[in-house]
Amino acid sequence: MKNKSLKLIPILLILSLVLVACGQAEETVTNQNPMQYIGVEELKTSIESGSDDYIILDVRKVEDYNTSHIVGAYTSDQDAANKGGDDATGIANLKNTLQEATGSEVGNAEDKYALVCYSGKSYAQKATDLMIEMGISKDQIYTVEGGMTAWEEGGDDYKGLLE
User: Fold this and answer.
1) Where are any strands of DSSP class E within 84-125?
2) What does the alpha-carbon distance between residue 48 and residue 3 come to, in Å, rounded to a whole number?
3) In this predicted model, what pLDDT tens digit does every residue of 111-128 receive, in sequence order?
4) Is 75 in a helix, a strand, or coil?
5) Domain boundaries along the sequence of the chain
6) Which segment of the chain is annotated as a signal peptide (predicted)?
7) Stretch 70-75: mean pLDDT
8) 3-class secondary structure, 162
9) For domain 36-160, is the CATH number 3.40.250.10?
10) What contacts 28, CB < 8 A, 6 or more positions away?
């Protein structure tokens, strides 16, 4: 029994080192600036009133945007940045989208952005981090709470505002 226990020690040591390394790598990869949220009801009301309070940036994969998106939204695919760590592609996509939406690669100081992702988490978080890195104020960036999932679950009133 003593020999079996001694054989487990190196294995347990390696496993613990791997777990520690994974935890450290995860902490260094994510920037995670605090996100602020806009509820789906507030965004829906803004769209229905014809307001231009928010520039809607759909940061999901372009294929998903092409399948269905909130009316008036611009696509800015953040999959390469979010899943692959390719921040340069994420920033380039954001700059192209902001140029199209605002006439400037970094938007304008008075603009507010509503980020739509799948569930209001990782894609929006990555886009938030990159936009702040680009010099856009965190006060201008809002994440749609619950993302496209919450929008689609909102019922017919919400589905009527999809393209």
Assistant:
1) 113-116
2) 72
3) 999 999 999 899 999 999
4) strand
5) 36-160
6) 1-25
7) 97
8) strand
9) yes
10) none
